[in-house]
Amino acid sequence: MNSRLITIPTYILKGILPLLKNTSYKKKIEDLLENVGKYQTQNISYFPKDGKVERIVDGDTVVLHNGTIVRYVGITSPETNEPFEKEATEANRKLVEGKTVKLEYDNYKADKFGRILAYLVIDGKNVSVEMARLGMASVVIYQHKKPFIYQDHLLKAQEEAQKNKRGVWSA
C-alpha cells in the first residue's frame, strides 16, 4: 500500500461514498466526513485523547484507527526523495505502528491541510522528542509565535543528535 498523504476535498469523498457500498472503505470515509468539521473548529474537546496507530505516512505523520491524520508537533522529518526519508519513516514505524498512543495538544491544534497537530506519547515517551533524538527529524521553531510546550526538550534532543552525528546530522 502506498503511504503517501493526499488531500481530497470533502465534496469528492461525499460523491464517491455511494460507490463504496459493501467495501471496507465505506466506514472509513464516513468517519472522516463526520470528523472533518470537528477538527476544523480547533475545539480540543472534539480531538481524540488516545488512539491506535493504523498506518505510518512518513517520519512525522500517522493515521489512527478511526482515519484521523495526526502530524507531530514541533518537528519535521525528511520529505519524499530527501536523504533519510526512508529511515525516518521506518524509525516512526518502530516507535508507534500498531500501538495505542496518547495524544497531547500544544498551542497549535491543526494545520492548513486539516491534520491534527499533536504529540504522540507511548510508554511515557514523547515521539516528537524521540524522533529528534534519533536524528530522524529536525526541530521546527516559529519566530514571533508562541513557543511549543516541549520546545526545550525538543531542542535538547536535537542537540544530542547533532553532537553524536545521528541520522540527518551524520553528514
Helix-strand category: alpha+beta
Structure annotation, total helices: 5
Question: How would a textbook summarize the main sheet?
Answer: 5 strands, mixed, barrel
> What is the general shape?
elongated
Number of strands: 8
Helix content: 25-40%
Beta-strand share of residues: 15-25%
Mean of the pLDDT scores? Answer: 86
Low-confidence parts, pLDDT < 50 over ≥5 residues? none
Order of helices and strands: HHEEEEHEEEHEH
Distance between the termini: 31 Å
Write the layout of secondary structure elements.
Layout: H1 10-16, H2 25-40, E1 50-58, E2 61-64, E3 69-72, E4 75-76, H3 85-96, E5 100-104, E6 116-122, E7 125-126, H4 127-133, E8 138-139, H5 151-163
Parallel strand pairs: 3-6
Antiparallel strand pairs: 1-2, 1-5, 2-3, 4-8, 5-6, 6-7
